[in-house]
Amino acid sequence: MRAPNLLKRPKAKRCAECHKAIYDSWKESRHAISWTSKTYIETTENRSKEKYLACHIPESVTGEKPGPRLDPRDEGIYCVSCHFINSRMNGPCAETLLKHLGFCLGGVKSLSNAEDYIEASLLLARGLGKRKEELEILLRYGEIYAQSKDMEQALNLLGEGLELAEKYRDNRYEGLFLVQMGDTYAHMQEKQNAVENYMQALDPLKKAKETLLVDEINLKLSRSFELAEDNEESFESRRVIEPIKKPSRGKGLVLVRSKTDEFIQHGNKNMISGYIGSTEEIFKTYQLDIKETTTRESLLGMLGTLRENNHHACATILKNKFSL
Fold it and tell me: How many other C-beta atoms can be found within 10 angstroms of the C-beta atom of residue 33?
């Protein structure tokens, strides 16, 4: 039987009743003073820099990214941080500790020190058959390398993670890896590759019902297309005195996808004609050409999504209307 207060978040002294040697060792460690250290207080301007909170007073290091703990804070990184899992205290978990150390070191750009911890946690996750943890580590590992400007290594790790996500049939992580690859390409100023990865991420994230992420990606795509068109217009303005402003074709595709998503969520047979009519209007307004590869592939993807969500009649009409 577990004591009732161990189903909550015990203070370190409560744990010391059974684990005094471990408590004494912790008390002398840097973990114990991670919140009260003068160096930390000065470096973070009296703890005002929020990005350091999750490392110095983590609620739990078992999630994808730890969040800061509200109380108690004076104990810094203590028993609860690593052992409070699934709403109760648990035994030691080396993989979680190694992963957390690696992520924290990577987050402060100490990559050479972080690598050993992350590799060890990855090895343990694979040895224990923990697929979610394996994908999580690879995703964060790739992100750390991207932040450290080692884009080649970042893309290698993210590509490895993407292959595993596809193999494990994990739609959520498949989408997350594609988004991170898109972000990496965006930092490299490779806009076309960034856009392609963002667009590929939409389908798996929709299947995983990650609505907020889908909205964020659509926003990124819209901004990417607008940026490309602004650059095109700047180029044209150097050639003619009054360039004719072209409609945003990329933005038009985003609008069609948005209309399709809206129909999938709320549509029925009585709304098919309205959806098809809106799509045709967007095609005319934004001068979308069904013969263009990007436009055609995008529409074919929407066609497949409609069928996957049992809107077969709408999919058939859309197919016939645009000769897909």
Answer: 18
Distance CA 261, CA 201 (A): 15
Is residue 190 a contact partner of residue 183, using CB atoms and an 8 Å limit? no
pLDDT score for 121: 73
Angle at 316 between CA 310 and CA 319, to 5 degrees: 125
* Amino acid at site 175: G
Check: CB of residue 305 under 8 Å from CB of residue 319: no
Please give the residue that has the higher pLDDT: either 133 or 81: 133
Under DSSP, is residue 92 helix (H, G, I), strand (E, B) or coil? Answer: coil
Give the tens place of pLDDT for each residue, 281-307: 888 878 888 888 888 888 888 888 888
Q: In b/e form, how buried is each residue of 217-250, taking b as 16+ CB within 10 angstroms?
A: bbebbbebbeebbeeeeeeeeeeeeeeeeeebbb
**Distance from chain centroid for Cα 185:** 15
Predicted TM-score (pTM) of this structure:
0.48
